[in-house]
Amino acid sequence: MYQTTLDQMKRLVETFAPYAQDRGTLDELHRMISDQRSWHMAHDLFNRIRRKGLAAVRNNDARAARQYSFEEICAKTLFNLTNTEAPFDPDSPYWVVPFALRLGRCIGIPDDNIVEIVAGAAPKS
């Protein structure tokens, strides 16, 4: 079950990367997804992303804010997979898709592309 979520998150990150103005934490997240030994560091990654996200909101940069929101939820999901005694909200994985859709819409990626990654096929019209 978790491997599917991880594979989907990785593909989403790869889809968004060419559109990112700041790839620092996005690239770090990409590497982390594939390295289970690093997941315990996802809390620190979340904190760094959060600071960038708050700055984006203060600067009225909606595109960056949406990117960082997506990154944050992925970092929370990874950290929760460590079975920590102090997890983020347990519903974190369920927010990956809505945040991915919001980011995709902001940067011009059709919903169908996101749906294909997370569901295996685009919905029929």
Task: Give a description of the structure.
With 125 residues, this protein is mostly helical. The chain has one domain (2-16, 23-119). It has helices at residues 2-16, 24-33, 42-58, 62-80, 96-107, 111-119.
List the helices and strands and how they pair.
Elements: H1 2-16, H2 24-33, H3 42-58, H4 62-80, H5 96-107, H6 111-119
Helix pairs in contact: 1-2, 1-4, 2-3, 2-4, 3-4, 4-5, 5-6
Task: Assess the beta-strand content as a share of residues.
Answer: under 5%
Spatial separation of the terminal alpha carbons: 28 Å
SSE arrangement, N to C: HHHHHH
Rough outline: globular
Note the quaternary state here: single chain
Specify the biggest β-sheet. none
Count of folded domains: 1
Q: Can you tell me the residue ranges where pLDDT is under 50 for at least 5 consecutive residues?
A: none
Number-wise, the strands total 0
Q: Structural class, judged by helices and strands?
A: mainly alpha
Mean pLDDT score: 93
Q: What would you report as the Rg, rounded to the nearest angstrom? A: 14 Å
Question: What's the helical proportion of residues?
Answer: 55-70%
Provide a short characterization of the protein structure.
Helix 2 runs antiparallel to helix 3, helix 3 runs antiparallel to helix 4 (62-80) and helix 5 (96-107) packs antiparallel against helix 6.
